[in-house]
Amino acid sequence: MKKPSLLDRHLLAANKKEIQLIERRLFLKGTFSMGALALLSGCDLADNETVNRMLHGMSRFNDEIQAKLFDVTRLAPEYAPNMITQPFPFNAFYARDAVPIVDASTYHLELLGLIRDKKSWTLKELGELPQVSQITRHVCVEGWSAIGKWGGVRFSDFLQRIGADTTARFVGFKCADDYYTSIDMATALHPQTLLALTFADKTLPTEYGFPMKVRIPTKLGFKNPKHVMAIYVTNTYPGGYWEDKGYNWFSGL
């Protein structure tokens, strides 16, 4: 691989943020961590378009590899009650006082896309379905983690109940705070993926996602949407709030 030219070094410096994004977000836990600098230094960095094309190509490659390695039968670790983090951290793309307030009495979970029964669901109806709980670790892309107890409806059971097309590629989520994200169908069907309605055996607090959070212990925290208002099933890539800004889409642990 050739030594980067002065121009290349200048462009690498100018795109430091994007390169750090690759090293921190895309090559999770050191997987394929050959280094963005080593990869990019042999390329023609004549403009930002070249860099962005490379970064997006690397992201797609990383998504494909992680999807192939994902095992729906492999469970995330679960923990004893005395290991629960106290207090559990609040985290969002806004301050705590900006958390959306959703009226429980008027809440209806909207269903869209490749689903046979698209009737909306109230919180009462969701609470009457069989409930399960888990004590699992939330891992944030920012470098911290915390253990919490979540309870709710196993997502795979809910998808079966509503007649979702489980051969479809993606499941997407729309939230009350304008957040949105999406996951692969294999993750949606994972036995630990929950429509979480409770936290620490109590109604899900507003700051942790009331009225409903999708708890996915096999993925990084930003893939666990809060304040979920709609779920849809599709074969068209849905993207996500952070994913559309450059974060790795699959983001599995």
Report on this model:
- This protein is α+β, with helices and mostly antiparallel strands.
- It has two domains: about 5-70; about 80-245, Sulfite Oxidase, Chain A, domain 2.
- About 25% of the residues lie in helices and about 20% in strands.
- It contains seven helices and nine strands, in the order ααααβαββαββαββββ.
- The protein has helices at about 5-15, 15-25, 35-40, 50-70, 125, 155-160, 185-190; strands at about 110-115, 130-140, 145-155, 170-175, 180-185, 195-200, 200-205, 215, 230-235.
- The strands form two sheets. Strands 2, 3, 6, 7 and 8 form a five-stranded antiparallel β-sheet that branches. Strands 1-9-4-5 form a four-stranded mixed β-sheet.
- Strand 2 (about 130-140) and strand 3 form a beta hairpin.
- Helix 2 packs parallel to helix 4.
- It is globular.
- Residues about 5-20, about 25-45 and about 55-60 have low confidence and may be disordered.
Layout of secondary structure:
Layout lengths: L5 H9 L1 H11 L9 H5 L7 H22 L40 E4 L9 H5 L4 E8 L5 E10 H7 L8 E6 L4 E5 H4 L5 E6 L2 E2 L9 E3 L12 E7 L19
Parallel strand pairs: 1-9
Antiparallel strand pairs: 2-3, 3-6, 4-5, 4-9, 6-7, 6-8
Number of strands: 9
What characterizes the major β-sheet?
A: 5 strands, antiparallel
Rg for CA atoms: 20 Å
CATH class of the largest domain: Alpha Beta
CATH T-level topology of the largest domain = Sulfite Oxidase, Chain A, domain 2
In the CATH hierarchy, what is the superfamily of the largest domain? Oxidoreductase, molybdopterin-binding domain
The outline comes out as globular
Count of separate structural domains = 2
Query: In sequence order, what are the helices and strands, one letter per element?
Result: HHHHEHEEHEEHEEEE
Level-2 CATH architecture of the largest domain: Alpha-Beta Complex
Q: Which structural category do the helix and sheet elements fall into?
A: alpha+beta
